[in-house]
Specification:
The radius of gyration is 21 Å and the shape is elongated. It is an alpha/beta fold. α1 crosses α13 and α8 crosses α11. It has two domains: 193 residues, Rossmann fold (3-Layer(aba) Sandwich), CATH 3.40.50; 172 residues, Rossmann fold, CATH 3.40.50.2000. 43% of the residues are buried. The chain starts with a strand and ends with a helix.
């Protein structure tokens, strides 16, 4: 099968899914191409690791403006380039990963002498869309041949926004069952965390782009509410973004010495093994891969009780939830986890790991997508 991945940028959790899906499909004997935007913008760029991984596996990458900007001239330019690729490589299926790439793909396939199905995965719903952009995206989702929601929460959200496409289903994203590459253990941040753990400090980790959606400021606020008799605690934030905002907040609260900012790490998931717990205080999520990675790495997970997160954490069973935006509640959960005995931690970790194996492995994700691709091709006949 010749499969085209059409996306905006290869970054964040969605970029990892595109990368893992592409490489795995290629390893199963399929031909895969990745088509994405060329010009980058602050906060919207390609992670070099993802590009390196694709090139190492000999996945063809085509960068062209624009599958990101809502600019009809740039979109048409991308559509023209994409049409040539569809013809030259005899593409069977187009898998889009955002609304604008879907529009570019629909224009590109129009007028060809054969029909190429388009499916679109919605990796969450952006918080910064205007009303006009939301209407446009809902319309485009109704125009594609298949919509994939990455969580039940996203499925419900899309329906509530007015998406009426009858071909919409939930397919969970998945990850490898084990970390498959060596980490550079001479990394100074890695060494710093090792030293902190050896001195008895408890590490509370948070992984993801720093900003309003992930709401890391709430964790800084909650950290300030934990009493000193809970022992030495350090919050470690791994990710790019508005680090200065968090640093200023920590300074204002007088806890600057209790937070560490590492910036972006190519292999952030390796740091999970150094954490006593993983916290995600987001206000909006699709399916957070950092929490799925926490299941695999057997770390206690804490997250805000919102759609997406509450599908990967069963409160009190596979982790802990708290009301979104409530720093006092988060602080109480953190204190509870810090005071838990080893037997209770093992019970929760083991249940979470079993849930990971049942629902969130890469093999399961690949098999489900291949089944869907074949189903779509059969619809075409």
């Amino acid at each position: 099968m010749n499969i085209l991945m059409c996306t905006t940028f290869l970054h964040g959790g969605a970029g990892k899914v595109v990368c893992d899906l592409s490489c795995s499909l290629l390893n199963r004997g399929h031909k895969v191409f990745v088509f994405a935007s060329k010009t980058t913008y602050p906060g919207y760029e390609h992670y070099e690791k993802y590009l390196e991984d694709l090139r190492r596996q000999h996945v063809s990458i085509i960068l062209c403006d624009s599958t990101f900007k809502r600019d009809i001239y740039q979109n048409i330019n991308a559509s023209m380039a994409l049409r040539q690729l569809l013809i030259k490589e005899d593409i069977d299926v187009i898998h889009s990963h955002a609304a604008v790439p879907s529009m570019v793909a629909m224009i590109a396939r129009s007028g060809l002498n054969r029909y190429i199905p388009i499916l679109q995965t919605m990796h969450g719903w952006g918080m910064n869309k205007t009303m006009e952009q939301e209407k446009m995206d809902v319309f485009l989702l109704d125009c594609v041949d298949q919509v994939i929601a990455v969580s039940k929460g996203d499925y419900i959200l899309l329906r509530s926004l007015g998406v009426q496409n009858p071909n919409m289903r939930v397919l969970y994203n998945g990850i490898c069952e084990c970390l498959n590459c060596e980490y550079e253990y001479d990394d100074p941040d890695w060494q710093k965390l090792i030293s902190l753990r050896q001195s008895g400090v408890k590490i509370i980790g948070c992984i993801g782009t720093i900003g309003k959606r992930k709401n890391q400021a709430l964790l800084v606020d909650a950290l300030n509410k934990i009493p000193s008799d809970c022992g030495k605690i350090m919050a470690v934030f791994i990710g790019e973004g508005d680090i200065e905002m968090l640093r200023q907040l920590a300074d204002e609260l007088g806890i600057r010495g209790s937070v560490v900012f590492t910036g972006y790490k190519k292999e952030a998931s390796h740091f999970l093994k150094l954490m006593d717990m993983l916290v995600l205080p987001s206000v909006s999520e699709g399916l957070p891969l950092s929490l799925v990675e926490g299941m695999r790495e057997k770390v206690i997970r804490v997250g805000s009780n919102i759609p997406g997160i509450n599908e990967v954490i069963a409160d009190g069973e596979t982790g802990f939830l708290f009301p979104s935006g409530d720093a006092d509640s988060l602080a109480r959960v953190l204190i509870h986890v810090l005071e838990m005995d080893d037997a209770e931690k093992k019970r929760i970790i083991d249940k979470a790991y079993a849930d990971f194996k049942a629902r969130f492995t890469l093999d399961k994700m690949i098999s489900c997508h291949l089944d869907l691709y074949n189903e779509m091709l059969n619809r075409r006949i």
